[in-house]
């Protein structure tokens, strides 16, 4: 009996649904505009994905509700200063390296589209970003359909479709679009609001005046303690009586947490004025307990919700108990002129039909949709979330919620899709094993994706049989390492290395002292205790399983490896020092592969070739292919001095003198086996200096 | 199964090895075979397969009791076979008498079988005690008669127990053995509790029966060998008196590698010295020997390098000896764990480059190109050579030095200029030029595709390549006169110093495909081989002249003043390249560092004549006839001039322990057997002698030196960060099982968010922030505590 009303309701829904379908079916389902890839939102991540799809020649479209790209940046941040750095000089010309310090550019082949050509400011204006995104879309001729607000997304089952269903998108004009794959790049733009008695007196960040004059001589309370709250405070700091800032938990400073979304030093003026006793202040408290009462003069008083619950609501504001009535030194007993809410944004879940099961994350990640480490929705196959909205993967850890991070995760998603739907394997290069150390050194020194998306994206080195060669895959999401073969089309039968970058395990945190004495590790043998961002190489004899991935300790990017190597943190983030960086790395790789990865001059290879049945890889792959390193007299002399090369010319004389006298041939043949230790001087390489 | 039996064994004959085997007998056979005086361990089985089969075999190859497995299935007669649980037990018989029965689970391994069996058999020789009083009683009864060996093992059947029993088996007649498994019996030592220990109680030489026996602890672990050594030391006299040259003295201590302390005595103080020596000796018992040297009996040789230690006190002697022992142990430990060599560079190229880092290279002859200048630079000269390298990479930097030398050699040469691109600065340029590893040298020719250098990374080799590659190949010849000129080497006189043999392809005008393949081959070999092409009507005349069918190659070997002709049977470009390459290999080459790989690629044994100068004519002739003579296809005859190739001395040193007289002929078979033979130095190197010798080698009549076939392993271990992390971060290594929900909760507890303050689902407790119970709400909001509200909602 209870089911009946529900059934009726669903019938009703079905009828409207059918009607709805009917109107669009008048043109016929086949004429519904179809795209393989539909991107919602022409913000940075939407445009970034559009670029990759365009470059790969895919059928795609971007829907943008505004008339221009980057509409979020047209309004936010309200005070118009971006906090992503635009470092125009690094002293290096390496374009990949320089992207490590360019947090605003999107990836493209066009070097004109680097943000440093757009702004000279270290912290650029938001308008510049809007301008940049416009250029990015137009110069690269990306297919963006502006003024198209997608208001509804639903599924249409079809066994022919890539994922067993099509996505039907409806815009504000009731125009429908059919998409094989949906890429959600809408960011988080719905302001977080809080409801408590008196919250109607609260002004929102999105609409509050940005003219400091409007705040002259006022007492201000700001709710929230993120960058928007501090940015707002910064703007009016000089003209207010005082600013109080309240939030539930302590302030998190980005220089302590290494998370760019926490409070940045550029916005922290209020911390100064608070700690330097200039009337401003920071408080911790739960906003849910809060209540605001407005008195006759229009002043706002802070009280607690339970006082309201206990008092007679019909009585006037003056009858409500204030905390200071009981506690005469209550902290926020002074009345405020304004209360401003700066509580950030959340993802807009409203446009997705329930059948898509696009669910919010749990806890702190509630503002983001729930996705897998492959950036695909947990609820719907073929729906990928890009950009800021995909930050649940690395929230409070890495940079996936910011342009300089998601430009790389977007590329990773594109590569996953290229393999899944077009059979294009993950791009890779094959090198001889002698290039292994070099390949890693090159990447850890210049790769920007590894640097920005530390612990999230990693380079994968797949070993070929007998470890004579390897295949190098760049910037793969390590969260889906177990399914590497499925996602990349590459084989990992002979073991693999994963190269990631990490901060020290116990270094970062809101309450950590990141300036303690002796915080930096200098010696290679203590590299595993490095605190600053440094390269870490994991070695697995076999690809970790899904189970091993899920059982890995919390906060570890990867499960327990068979061996691990840390390259010691470096003050200049330059890991090319021959003894401190390259030598220990080589020893690690040698011991994983059980081989000798040293370089040799041709002369040494010549000696080995005539005195050993086997050769070290460098000689086998170089010298024996007529590509030995001859070197010159000077270098060979250095090697001789170091005791690493024997000088056979000096023996010349004594040999000739003794040669004739030395005993019979029987004696000469006394040693029947040449022990490998006869090349002792190469094995025990003590420097005689 | 005849063996001397236990009676003999207990008489003190150690380890009589008898080739006993495990017998499988029927019960009747068994009981009838029992002989007096012999012990046997019997295991009854139904199927003949015994659990401890292999263990028993092992045991009684060492001992003289017989292990026998009786198969009950064969004859169901024995009363043992009938017993319900007999099959779970092993029985020890001596003289038909059952001594013990063991549950089979007590005989879990060889140690347990040996220990338990000996324990049962040596019932009299080894007393088991449960209290310390028993030990004292025993000691008292033996004073003046025998010494006591007292051992503590935590359990029977352990390897330590076995070691003690084996010692008792040998020394049971000499000493009384006492065993306990009660740790409480060690209380008298006052030492830390140990896993197992053994004491020697000196009761035999107790001077006064009222005094207790001295006890000496064996510090080493309980193994048969250690006990054996220890008992030997205990049996030695406490102080050895010496009246001869100390160098000639040999005591058990020195034989066992222990220190021997000589205490120098004078006639006047002899008695006092002897007491001192005895005192010291007791302290050092088991660790070092003490000898009392009566110096007045002999005179030390003058100037003998003897150092005297003058010590104030006996403690100093003991400390000296014990520190030395400790020091050795520490040294040993350090040797084992010493990995400091790990941080020392053992890569010769990296180290050489590193040592040269402060030298500024004269780079002014080489242009440094950038992303902006690269493309423009390529159009400026006819030939632009570019070295792509990485400024941090050792091989690149070594190559750069050779490159500088090439630049100096080419200075002033028209139409060719040298440049470099640092891929660390300009990764995009390198990527666009398809440079993915370093170093790579490319030659860009205006209006043509680039050539990548694939030769040795050295000055001379690169220079030769650059000189030869600037010649366009193949050169097109149109007249017979040009052909003659070409073959005489007059065309490329300037590059002839690069000892190249010009290769001329001759084709009939109709052979279009073969000609095109040759042109392609010429391009492939460009920079390494100069090629010419004649495809005119008079090709047949040339074919006739050189007696070769078309298409054909003519090779002008300048050194031998000879022109060789080869017919091209296979005519793809790749085949032609192969043909040219193999034709250019010499029949009797001088092996050098640069050309060895070419000749090794033939995979033939090498017959190398080592000499320290050029070859004289007769020797060359002999070798040449070997190289061209009978059976020459089976090997490559070659020679090495140690003046040109000094590293050849290193080769000889590796082959033979002492540098041999030169010239030396060696047979080096690297590819199949890895064997090296030396031609007898007393014979002259002639074709006949060498061939006879080779026959001898084939017959296996000479002793070879074998080349190491060891794989190239890591020279040193890496830092074991995983182990270091395990010590401090166990959670990394132990897979903690968190359910998904559990992990989320954990993260929630760690992270307190902004939004949670507004839309919190559950209360997250933060220790230390909770309001104390019973306090009125807001109490904690005093001015000093900047908090807005209590965390706990007040009671309603």
Supply the number of helical segments of chain B: 27
For the sheet with most strands of chain A, the description reads: 7 strands, mixed
Number of helices of chain A: 22
Q: How much is the radius of gyration of chain B in Å?
A: 44 Å
Poorly predicted parts of chain A: 1-28, 652-689
* Distance between the ends of chain A: 95 Å
- Across the major sheet of chain B, the strand order is 1-3-2-4-5
Largest β sheet strand count, sense and barrel closure of chain B? 5 strands, mixed
Overall geometric form of chain A: globular
Query: What does the radius of gyration of chain A come to?
Result: 32 Å
Number of strands of chain A: 22
| Percent helix of chain B | 25-40%
What's the count of strands of chain B?
Answer: 28
Low confidence ranges of chain B:
1-21, 47-66, 332-338, 733-796
N-to-C CA distance of chain B: 95 Å
Which structural class best describes the helix and strand composition of chain B? alpha/beta
Described by the principal axes of the CA atoms, the overall outline of chain B is elongated
Family (chain A): Belongs to the FOXRED2 family.
Subunit structure (chain A): Interacts with SEL1L. May interact with OS9 and DNAJC10. Interacts with TXNDC16.
GO biological process, one term (chain A): ERAD pathway
GO cellular component, one term (chain A): endoplasmic reticulum lumen
Overview of this protein structure:
The complex is a heterodimer of chains A (689) and B (796). Chain A is an alpha/beta fold. Chain A contains 22 helices and 22 strands. In chain A, a hairpin with a 4-residue loop joins strand 5 (165-171) and strand 6 (176-184). The longest helix of chain A has 23 residues, at 3-25. The radius of gyration of chain A is 32 Å and the shape is globular. The termini of chain A are far apart. Mean pLDDT of chain A is 87; it is low at 1-28 and 652-689. By secondary structure, chain B is an alpha/beta fold. In chain B, strand 15, helix 14 and strand 16 form a beta-alpha-beta unit. Chain B is elongated and about 125 Å long. At the A-B interface, strand 11, strand 17, helix 12, strand 22 and helix 16 of A face helix 12, helix 14, helix 16, helix 21 and helix 23 of B. Chain B: It comes from Chelonoidis abingdonii (Abingdon island giant tortoise). Chain B: Residues 748-796 are annotated as: Disordered.
């Amino acid at each position: 009996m209870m089911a009946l009303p529900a059934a009726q309701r669903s019938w009703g829904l079905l009828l409207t649904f059918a009607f709805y379908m009917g109107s669009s079916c008048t043109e016929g389902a086949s004429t519904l505009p179809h795209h393989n890839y539909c991107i919602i939102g022409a913000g940075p991540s939407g445009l970034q994905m559009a670029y990759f799809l365009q470059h790969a020649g895919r059928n795609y479209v971007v829907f943008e509700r505004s008339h221009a790209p980057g509409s979020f940046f047209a309004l936010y941040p309200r005070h118009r200063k971006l906090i992503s750095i635009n470092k125009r000089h690094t002293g290096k010309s390496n374009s990949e390296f320089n992207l490590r310090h360019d947090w605003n550019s999107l990836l493209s082949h066009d070097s004109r589209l680097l943000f440093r050509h757009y702004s000279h400011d270290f912290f650029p204006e938001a308008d510049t970003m809007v301008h940049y995104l416009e250029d990015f879309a137009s110069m690269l001729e990306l297919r963006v359909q502006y003024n198209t607000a997608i208001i509804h997304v639903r599924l249409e089952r079809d066994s022919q479709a890539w994922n067993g269903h099509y996505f039907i998108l409806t815009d504000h004009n009731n125009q429908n679009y059919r998409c094989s794959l949906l890429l959600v790049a809408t960011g988080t733009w719905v302001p977080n609001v809080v409801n408590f008695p008196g919250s109607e007196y609260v002004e929102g960040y999105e609409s509050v005046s940005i003219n400091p004059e409007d705040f002259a001589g006022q007492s201000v309370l700001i709710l929230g303690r993120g960058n928007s709250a501090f940015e707002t405070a910064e703007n009016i700091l000089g003209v207010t009586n005082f600013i109080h800032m309240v939030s539930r938990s302590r302030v998190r400073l980005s220089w302590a947490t290494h998370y760019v979304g926490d409070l940045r030093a550029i916005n922290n003026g209020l911390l100064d004025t608070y700690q330097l006793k200039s009337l401003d202040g920071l408080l911790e408290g739960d906003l849910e307990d809060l209540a605001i009462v407005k008195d006759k003069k229009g002043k706002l008083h802070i009280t607690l919700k339970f006082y309201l619950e206990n008092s007679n609501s019909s009585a006037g504001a003056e009858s409500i108990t204030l905390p200071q009535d009981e506690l005469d030194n209550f902290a926020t007993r002074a009345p405020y002129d304004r209360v401003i809410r700066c509580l950030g944004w959340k993802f807009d879940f409203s446009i997705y039909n329930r059948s898509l099961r696009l669910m919010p994350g749990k806890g702190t990640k509630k503002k983001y949709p729930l996705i897998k480490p492959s950036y695909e929705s947990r609820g719907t196959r073929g729906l990928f979330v890009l950009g800021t909205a995909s930050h649940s993967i690395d929230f409070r850890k890495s940079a996936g919620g910011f342009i300089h991070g998601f430009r790389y995760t977007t590329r990773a998603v594109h590569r996953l899709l290229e393999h899944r739907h077009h059979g294009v394997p993950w791009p890779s290069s094959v090198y001889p094993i002698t290039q292994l150390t070099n390949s890693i050194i090159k990447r850890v020194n210049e790769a920007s994706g590894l640097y920005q998306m530390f612990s999230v994206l990693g380079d994968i080195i797949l070993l070929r049989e007998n470890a004579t060669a390897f295949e190098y895959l760049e910037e793969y999401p390590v969260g889906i390492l177990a399914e590497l073969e499925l996602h990349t089309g590459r084989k990992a039968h002979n073991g693999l290395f994963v190269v990631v970058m990490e901060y020290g395990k116990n270094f970062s945190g809101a309450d950590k002292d990141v300036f303690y004495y002796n915080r930096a590790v200098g010696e290679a043998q203590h590299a595993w205790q490095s605190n600053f961002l440094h390269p870490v190489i994991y070695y697995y004899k076999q690809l970790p399983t899904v189970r091993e991935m899920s059982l890995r300790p919390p906060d570890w990017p990867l499960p327990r490896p068979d061996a691990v190597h840390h390259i010691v943190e470096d003050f200049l983030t330059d890991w090319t020092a021959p003894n401190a960086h390259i030598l220990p790395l080589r020893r690690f790789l040698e011991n994983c592969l059980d081989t000798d990865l040293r370089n040799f001059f041709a002369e040494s290879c010549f000696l080995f070739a005539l005195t050993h049945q086997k050769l070290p890889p460098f000689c086998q792959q170089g010298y024996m292919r007529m590509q030995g390193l001859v070197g010159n007299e000077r270098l060979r002399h250095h090697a001789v001095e170091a005791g690493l090369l024997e000088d056979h010319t000096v023996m010349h004389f004594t040999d000739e003198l003794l040669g004739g006298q030395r005993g019979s041939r029987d004696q000469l043949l006394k040693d029947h086996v040449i022990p490998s230790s006869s090349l002792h001087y190469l094995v025990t390489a003590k420097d005689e200096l | 199964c005849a063996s001397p039996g236990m009676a003999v064994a207990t008489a003190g004959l150690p380890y009589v090895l008898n080739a006993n085997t495990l017998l499988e007998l029927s019960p009747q056979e068994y009981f009838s075979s029992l002989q007096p005086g012999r012990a046997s361990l019997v295991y009854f089985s139904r199927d003949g397969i015994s659990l401890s089969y292999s263990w028993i075999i092992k045991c009684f190859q060492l001992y003289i009791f017989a292990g026998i497995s009786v198969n009950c299935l064969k004859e169901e007669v024995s009363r043992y076979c009938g017993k319900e649980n007999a099959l779970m037990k092993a029985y020890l018989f001596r003289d038909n008498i059952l001594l013990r029965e063991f549950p089979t689970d007590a005989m879990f391994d060889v140690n347990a079988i040996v220990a338990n069996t000996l324990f049962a058999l040596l019932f009299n020789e080894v007393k088991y005690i449960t209290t310390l009083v028993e030990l004292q009683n025993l000691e008292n009864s033996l004073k003046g008669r025998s010494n006591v060996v007292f051992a503590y093992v935590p359990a029977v059947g352990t390897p330590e127990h076995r070691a003690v029993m084996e010692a008792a088996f040998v020394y049971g007649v000499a000493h009384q053995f006492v065993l306990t498994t009660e740790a409480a019996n060690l209380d008298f030592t006052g030492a830390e509790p140990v896993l197992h220990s053994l004491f020697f109680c000196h009761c035999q030489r107790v001077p006064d029966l009222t005094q207790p026996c001295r006890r000496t602890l064996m510090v080493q672990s309980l193994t048969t060998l250690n006990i054996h050594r220890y008992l030997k030391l205990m049996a030695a006299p406490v102080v050895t008196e010496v009246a001869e040259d100390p160098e000639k003295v040999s005591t058990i201590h020195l034989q066992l590698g222990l220190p021997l302390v000589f205490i120098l005595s004078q006639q006047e103080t002899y008695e006092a010295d002897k007491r001192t020596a005895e005192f010291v000796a007791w302290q050092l018992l088991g660790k070092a020997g003490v000898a009392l040297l009566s110096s007045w009996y002999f005179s030390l040789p003058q100037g003998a390098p003897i150092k005297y230690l003058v010590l104030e006190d006996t403690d100093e002697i003991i400390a000296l000896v014990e520190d030395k022992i400790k020091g050795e142990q520490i040294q040993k430990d350090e040797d084992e764990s010493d990995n400091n060599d790990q941080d020392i560079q053992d890569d010769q190229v990296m180290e050489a480059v590193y040592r040269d880092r402060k030298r500024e290279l004269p780079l002014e002859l080489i242009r440094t190109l950038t992303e902006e200048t690269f493309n423009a630079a390529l159009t400026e000269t006819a030939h632009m050579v570019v070295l792509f390298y990485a400024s941090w990479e050792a091989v690149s930097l070594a190559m750069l030095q050779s490159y500088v030398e090439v630049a100096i050699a080419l200075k002033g040469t028209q139409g060719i200029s040298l440049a470099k691109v640092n891929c660390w600065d300009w990764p995009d340029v390198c990527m666009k030029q398809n440079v993915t590893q370093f170093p790579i040298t490319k030659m860009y020719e205006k209006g043509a595709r680039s050539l990548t250098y694939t030769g040795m990374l050295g000055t001379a080799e690169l220079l030769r390549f650059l000189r030869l590659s600037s010649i366009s190949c193949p050169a097109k010849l149109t007249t017979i006169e040009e052909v003659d000129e070409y073959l005489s080497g007059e065309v490329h006189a300037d590059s002839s110093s690069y000892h190249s043999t010009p290769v001329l392809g001759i084709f009939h005008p109709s052979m279009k495909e073969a000609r095109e393949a040759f042109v392609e081959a010429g391009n492939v070999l460009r920079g390494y081989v100069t090629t010419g092409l004649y495809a005119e009507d008079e090709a047949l005349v040339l074919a006739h002249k050189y007696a070769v069918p078309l298409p054909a190659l003519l090779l002008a070997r300048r050194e031998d003043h000879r022109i060789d002709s080869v017919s091209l049977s296979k005519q793809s470009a790749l085949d032609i390249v192969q043909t040219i390459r193999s034709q250019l290999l010499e029949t009797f080459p001088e092996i050098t560092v640069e050309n060895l790989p070419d000749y090794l690629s033939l995979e033939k044994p090498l017959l190398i004549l080592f000499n320290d100068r050029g070859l004289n004519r007769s020797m060359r002739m002999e070798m040449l006839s070997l190289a061209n003579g009978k059976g020459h296809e089976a090997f490559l005859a070659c020679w090495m001039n140690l003046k040109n190739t000094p590293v050849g001395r290193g080769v000889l040193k590796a082959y033979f322990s002492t540098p041999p007289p030169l010239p030396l002929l060696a047979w080096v078979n690297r590819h199949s057997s890895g064997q090296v033979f030396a031609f007898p130095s007393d014979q002259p190197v002639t074709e006949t002698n060498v061939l006879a010798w080779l026959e001898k080698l084939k017959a296996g009549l000479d002793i070879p030196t074998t080349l190491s076939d060891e794989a190239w392993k890591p020279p040193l271990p890496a830092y074991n960060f995983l182990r270091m992390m395990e010590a401090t971060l166990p959670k990394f290594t132990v897979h903690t099982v968190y359910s998904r929900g559990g992990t989320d909760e954990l993260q929630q507890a760690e992270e307190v968010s902004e939004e949670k303050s507004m839309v919190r689902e559950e209360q997250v407790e933060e220790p230390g922030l909770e309001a104390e119970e019973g306090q009125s709400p807001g109490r904690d909001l005093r001015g000093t505590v900047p908090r807005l509200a209590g965390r706990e909602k007040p009671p309603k």
